[in-house]
Amino acid sequence: MKSQVTGNGGPALPRRHEPDLADLATFILDRHGRVTSWSVTATRMFGHSAGAMTGHDVCDVLMTGPGQRELVDRALAEVGHGRVWTATVAGGRLGDGRFAIRCEPLAGLGGGAVVIAQRAWPQPAPSWLSQAAARMGSSLDLSQTAAEVADAAVPGFADLTIIYAAERLLAADALTSPAAGHGAVVRRLAARRADLSADVSDKMMRTGEVLVLGPGTPGSRAMATSGPVLFGELDPETAQRLSGNGSGKPTAEYTSYMAMPLVARGVVVGCAIFGRTPASPAFNPGDVALAGELASRAAVCIDNARLYDQERRTAAALQQGLLPGQPQVPDGLEVAHYYLPVGASVIGGDWHDIVPLSGGRAALIVGDAMGHGPEAAAVMVQLRTAAHTLADLDLPPEQVLRRLDKMAAEIATAPFATCIYAVIDPAAGSCEIVQAGHLPPVLVPPGRAAVLLDLPPGLPLGLGGESFQATHLTLPPGSTLALYTDGLVESRTRTLDVGLAALRQVLSQALAGPRTTLVEACDIVSHELREHREDDITLVLARIRG
Questions:
Q1: Residues forming beta bridges with residue 484, ordered by sequence position
Q2: What is the pLDDT of residues 398-414, one digit of tens each?
Q3: φ, ψ (nearest 5 deg) of residue 486
Q4: What are the chain's domains?
């Protein structure tokens, strides 16, 4: 049977609403189930503003249906143990339809969960396509999404299905469709045969393998023309893998095949190969239309998973490279820190660091590059890396800021940036602290109210001020020092003076209890003050053990 292209001259594919990332929303919960970040996509999907959601228990404002509080408790317990939790939910204030919910542990930001909600697709006939629609998109894992597509097609539509993704998109994010006559480099994401189990199919046609579909193969032609291709013989590479099944059973003889491009947002993201044995009717124009319907849904689901995987890897790299891990805190010192980027950003202009020094001392650093998002983060990472390196040299605090100021002046795109640097000696009960245009620290002596320290402010980094004056403080055992950024205390609806007064009051109350840990104090302060936040929030508390 000769290859037959059914593209522009073939049957028209049904028109339908294409799901896209508008059907995907994210928000963040702390470990108690309170909403700490509410994205624009979440507002678009659920109709609730960030102001109405942030700071509230998700079970009071969104997951209000029967049994949903128990679901949230179970999800938080799972992510608290470092595991991913998924479920499909409906009802309550979620709105119309069903939603696939995925909760992932939020590492490095004080615990909690990243919640990804995806609207379930409609369910058209026939039955296998209806089942496929319900099944696909339940996960944002790329391999699992491809497996869901293959499982949906076999055996309801075909006796064989292979799902390929364009390697250029997975490896380099190259948003261009392959040109005709050049073949296609693809990665096999999933493979299913009706006569074999899923595990055997995946091993026989190795999932994850990168291969080249030659220029004359139906798969590459479908990707180059963005149209389906009917054919009667497999390319030699696929045929060889199908014959080497190792199952002890004779290989099924397929007599009808279809290559269907996977097109999402105008870009070919891969292709699907379908095959039928003589026991099934050969593919006809009606099957092409149904395969096109399946492929259009599958393509967007796969591309959503690809985009999410790309964002998750970027976020993980940023978190690993920009946020401090588990610091080595001296025995005589207790330190807790809290960081929350504004909006849906993963990282912004704030940074904090804890650097162990000789003699049981520790350097605490908090900085703030103006803005948030990737531009501020690009500057922040340079300043944070330089500050850590300078601190590790055990230079006097004023020299650290002087050298950091010179480096900031050499960064062409550096925005306005502030910094505060403190060296605490638990054994001596002392602290040396210096500021570069930063807000003053707050000191909470044991059993007393919090006070705002009046220190020489210094000029912001990068202005060539050069003159930074360190202040020596005495810290009795049990004293707590608070370093923070302006996002915690200032906004358009709250003046700086009001915010600083609120910070002192909340810190005094949080630390009044003799058994209150610094982690608990961080939670209390951040929960009370972040209601007005319009910028990244950073809070570092350090206490000399009594």
A1: 539
A2: 999 999 988 888 776 65
A3: -70, -20
A4: 4-18+123-312 (3.30.450.40), 21-119 (3.30.450.20), 323-544 (3.60.40.10)
